[in-house]
Amino acid sequence: MSLDKVKKLAKDNGVKFVDLRFADMLGKEHHVAYPASSISEELFEDGKMFDGSSISGWKGINESDMVLLPEAASAVLDPFAEEPTMILRCDVLEPSTMQSYSRCPRGIAKRAEAYLKASGTGDAAFFGPEPEFFVFDGVRYGANMQGAFYEIESEEGHWSSAKKYEGGNSGHRPGIKGGYFPVPPVDSLQDL
Fold first, then answer.
1. Distance of alpha carbon 100 from alpha carbon 108, whole angstroms
2. Which is the CATH superfamily of the domain at 3-99?
3. Coil vs helix vs strand at 119
4. Mean pLDDT over each residue of the chain, to the nearest integer
5. What is the mean pLDDT of residues 180-188?
């Protein structure tokens, strides 16, 4: 996608903010938002400076300056933002060289793909997230001088077969480690 197409997408959808996103080495997504007026040739050539010292495992405060360089082809509208917002995925660069930061996951993936091509091992590499999550009805925990505890409530948990629920309790629950990719009716949260 070209800069003109990014600008058109923003204009056609009344975009108010551009959300620059990047991930750390653990896969946690981070972001910083700017007014939509920031969408310019300069943004895609020079990027935006940010403080990398707050990203776990990255830089110390004495060398924390880093650059977020967005990729125009990554432009998508954020379906969850209250204000119309465009998301742009970014490479993280060293400001002194404008080269990829050694711990930027996008940069690592690009270098890995370049190595595969150069070594003749492959033509392309495909990388992507593997979203996994848990849905709980409640979580309680505590720690003090007297003791520590945690308690997880889940209507689907095998430990919940004896509980009374509004609408009844069929008693059927996925077994331990049996809730990974089941189909309905075992997966009662299909329409979450």
1. 8
2. Glutamine synthetase, N-terminal domain (3.10.20.70)
3. helix
4. 90
5. 78
